[in-house]
Each structure stands twice: as C-alpha cells, then as structure tokens.
Design goal:
Elements lengths: L22 E8 L9 H19 L2 E7 L4 E9 L3 H8 L8 H18 L4 E8 L16 E5 L9 H9 L2 E4 L5
Parallel strand pairs: 1-2, 1-4, 4-5, 5-6
Antiparallel strand pairs: 2-3
Helix pairs in contact: 1-2
C-alpha cells in the first residue's frame, strides 16, 4: 500500500485473521483432610491464585475440579478465568476422604469429550495433591501434557506423588521447589 491506497490486487482482498488455538487448563485440587497438615493446602492456595491470574492474563480457559469428601465436584468447566475464582479459593477448605481417582476418571472423560468438540484446543493438566492415596492400580489415560504439584510436607513423606506423576506421564514438582 502507498499512503493507504492499494497498489496490487492482494492489498484489497480480505484476509482472515489467524488466531492461535485456545488453551484449556484443567486443574484438579486434592482438598482432602490430609492436605491440612503443615499448611500444605494454604501454600497451594497461593500457587493457585497465581495460576488463576496467569490464566486471566493469557486468556486461557479453566476447568476446575475439587477432590474432597466422597465425590469430586466441578467448580468451573471450560470458562475464561475470572475474579470470581478468588472467592472460591478463599472459601476452599480441606476435609473428608480423597476421591482423587474418581476425579481423574471424571477428568479423563470430560477431556475426551471436549477434545471432540474443540479439536484445536490445547489442553493442559495441573494436579495438586499430597499423593496420600490408599491404593491405586489402574489410572485413566489423560491425553494431555500434565504437571503434578506435590504438596506433601512433614518429617515423614510417603513419596507417592512421584509414583503417581510417573504413572500419569506427568511432570513432577514439589511445591517447595516452585518459584
């Protein structure tokens, strides 16, 4: 273009903007009674607050699943990050059992259905847990890259989160090693 005037035919043709595919961050939070020990869940809340801010700035979509009590519970499913998540995070408490295996199964089914609806969407998993599960033999396959944040603290650590991360084919980080 020369001073706003088209010089060739291509200058006047409509060009569709290319957008990068949306990102979906699936966050599974283990809020069982064992996560109350040594401020593990409190520290995880700080990490989650930062994650929600990052998701908002990057315009990522969030799915949030809480594993506490007897059954996992969806808080958000594929919505853009918003300030309302802060209220949920402030009220998050720990208690009850660890339905983490049920949460992983639910998450696997939900991700598979979502992938069919939005094939270009980039999905990522963040699992926050202390790994204190009684037993697991079969884990669902989650077809997306994942990161497990281990929040287990104390003088005696069982180290089950490392094993869980390996079996889920997810990266492993301890919360104390996070920046």
């Amino acid at each position: 273009m020369l001073n706003g005037r088209p010089r060739q035919r291509d200058d006047v043709l409509f060009h569709l903007r290319t957008r990068s595919p949306h990102e979906l961050w699936l966050v599974i939070v283990d809020a069982s009674a064992s996560t109350r020990r040594r401020q593990a869940l409190s520290d995880a809340k700080g990490l989650l607050a930062q994650l929600f801010d990052d998701a908002y700035r990057q315009r990522a979509r969030l799915a949030l699943l809480t594993a506490s009590g007897h059954v996992p519970k969806w808080q958000v499913q594929g919505l853009k990050a918003s300030a309302g998540l802060r209220d949920w995070l402030d009220g998050l408490g720990a208690g009850g059992g660890t339905p983490l295996l049920a949460a992983l199964g639910e998450a696997g089914r939900w991700l598979a259905a979502r992938q069919k609806r939005f094939p270009a969407e980039q999905q990522r998993l963040l699992l926050v847990t202390d790994g204190r599960l009684k037993d697991w033999s079969m884990l669902p396959a989650l077809e997306c890259p994942g990161l497990l944040i281990d929040i287990e603290r104390g003088p005696i650590r069982l180290g089950r989160s490392k094993v869980l991360a390996t079996q889920l084919q997810a990266q492993y980080r301890h919360i104390d090693d996070m920046e």
